[in-house]
Write a structure and sequence with these properties.
Blueprint (H helix, E strand, L loop, with lengths): L5 H11 L16 E3 L9 E5 L9 H10 L4 E4 L1 H4 L6 H18 L5 E6 L1 H12 L2 H4 L2 E7 L4 E2 L5 H4 L9 E2 H6 L6 E6 L15 E6 L8 H12 L1
Parallel strand pairs: 2-3, 2-4, 4-5, 5-8, 8-9
Antiparallel strand pairs: 1-3, 6-7
Length: 230
C-alpha cells in the first residue's frame, strides 16, 4: 500500500477539485532590486514598488537616497510583476516571505511600505492582505502620486497618461481602511492630487514637493518621509 506524505494528499485533493493552489514566487523569480545600507538596527527596511514604467527614472536614485539614510531598500519592478493581472492577495503572498527574509538578513525591526505611481495605487490593497505580524512591523505607508482607482495590471494607455480614472478598485477607500499605521501621500507641485485642497483625514497626510510626476527633488521626498516617521 502506497502512503503519500500529507502535503501530496493535500495537493491531490486540490487537483481532484479542479483547484491549483497559487505558487509563491521566489525572490529570484520576482527579479527584485536590492540596495543595501550600512547597519542601523533602528532604521527600517524599505519595500518599494515602482511605477508602471518599470525600474527607471526616479526609482534607483530614491533607493540610493534611502540607503544613505541607513534604510536598505527592496525594490519591485511593477511593470514586470503586474504585466499580467495580479490580485493583491497573491502579491501579498509573494512579498511576505521576502519581507521576513530580509528583516532577518539585514537585522531590521520595521518596514516602510512605499509605492510610486502605479505602485502607490496597489500598495494599500497589498497591505491589507499581508500577515498580521508583518502589518504590525510597518511603521509608515508612503504613496507617491497615487491615482483614484486601479485594476492591478499595467496598461499601455496608463503609461501614456491617457488611461481612465474609473477602474473597479477605489484607491482612496483602500487608504482609508489603513488605520493602524500613518499614510503619507506625496505629489509633485505640478501634479493634480486626487484629494481636494481642504482634505483632512485623521490618518492620511498629503504633502507636495517641487517638480512633476517624475520626482526630481529627492531630498524633499526623503525629508517628508523622515518627518512622517517621527
Amino acid at each position: 500500500m502506497l502512503i503519500l506524505p500529507y502535503k501530496w494528499v493535500h495537493f491531490l485533493c486540490f487537483l481532484w477539485l479542479g483547484i491549483i493552489p497559487p505558487s509563491v514566487l521566489t525572490a529570484q523569480e520576482l527579479q527584485l532590486h536590492f540596495t543595501p545600507a550600512s547597519e542601523n538596527h533602528d532604521a527600517p527596511l524599505v519595500f518599494f514598488l515602482s511605477g508602471d514604467g518599470g525600474w527607471v527614472h526616479f526609482c534607483q536614485p530614491f533607493s540610493d537616497k534611502m540607503a544613505e539614510l541607513k534604510m536598505p531598500v527592496i525594490g519591485l519592478d511593477s511593470r514586470k510583476y503586474f504585466w499580467n493581472h495580479v490580485q493583491p492577495e497573491k502579491a501579498a503572498q509573494d512579498l511576505a516571505p521576502v519581507m521576513r527574509e530580509y528583516l532577518q538578513k539585514w537585522n531590521r525591526k520595521s518596514i516602510l511600505f512605499v509605492g510610486f505611481s502605479f505602485g502607490a495605487d496597489v500598495v494599500p490593497f497589498i497591505y491589507s492582505y499581508l500577515p498580521t505580524d508583518l502589518r504590525e512591523k510597518i511603521k509608515l505607508v508612503v504613496l507617491m502620486s497615487p491615482a483614484k482607482t486601479t485594476d492591478f495590471q499595467v496598461h499601455y494607455i496608463d503609461m501614456m497618461g491617457m488611461g481612465p480614472d474609473n477602474y473597479a478598485n477605489d484607491v482612496v477607500k483602500a487608504m482609508d481602511a489603513i488605520r493602524k499605521v500613518p499614510v503619507l501621500c506625496i505629489y509633485g507641485d505640478e501634479e493634480k492630487p486626487i484629494f481636494p485642497p481642504d482634505f483632512i483625514h485623521p490618518n492620511i497626510k498629503v504633502e507636495t514637493v517641487n517638480g512633476s510626476h517624475h520626482y526630481k527633488d529627492g531630498d524633499g521626498v526623503s525629508q517628508l518621509i523622515i518627518d512622517a516617521m517621527r
